[in-house]
């Protein structure tokens, strides 16, 4: 699956309340705090998906298959997005490290 990194970065900006318009002063946000928050949200989505899936498998009548599939897909997409951002950050780091000063 080919993900558009710009869409992911725009979503991160929206979640962290960074304005997309450069004319407005952006609030200062600690990158590590933003990263931790995002990872916690992805973990929460995965935990919720597993809980819903287990409830469905146990025969809980209040949960239907579409709900299970949607929760699973949301968790999967969130994980893939985080992995793609991580890969892009690592590539940028490697390029910076290979630059001659």
Structural commentary:
There is one protein chain. The chain has helices at residues 5-15, 31-57, 65-98. The protein has 101 residues and is mostly helical. The protein is built from three helices and no strands. The protein is elongated. The chain has one domain (5-14, 30-98). Helix content is 71%, strand content 0%.
What's this model, at a glance?
By secondary structure, this protein is an all-alpha fold. It has helices at residues 5-15, 31-57, 65-98.
Q: What's the helix-strand series?
A: HHH
Number of domains: 1
**Helix content, binned percent:** over 70%
The coarse silhouette is elongated
Q: What is the SS-derived class?
A: mainly alpha
What low-confidence regions span 5 or more consecutive residues with pLDDT below 50? none
Distance between the termini: 36 Å
Number of helices: 3
Largest sheet: none
Radius of gyration, in Å, reads 18 Å
Salient structural properties:
101 residues; mainly alpha
Please outline the helices and strands.
Layout lengths: L4 H11 L15 H27 L7 H34 L3
Helix pairs in contact: 2-3
């Amino acid at each position: 699956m080919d993900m558009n990194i710009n869409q992911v970065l725009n979503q991160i900006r929206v979640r962290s309340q960074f304005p997309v318009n450069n004319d407005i002063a952006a609030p200062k946000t600690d990158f590590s705090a933003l990263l931790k928050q995002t990872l916690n949200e992805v973990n929460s989505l995965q935990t919720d998906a597993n809980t819903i899936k287990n409830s469905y498998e146990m025969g809980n009548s209040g949960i239907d298959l579409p709900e299970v599939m949607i929760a699973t897909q949301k968790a999967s997409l969130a994980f893939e997005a985080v992995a793609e951002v991580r890969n892009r950050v690592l590539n940028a780091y490697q390029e910076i490290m290979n630059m001659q000063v």
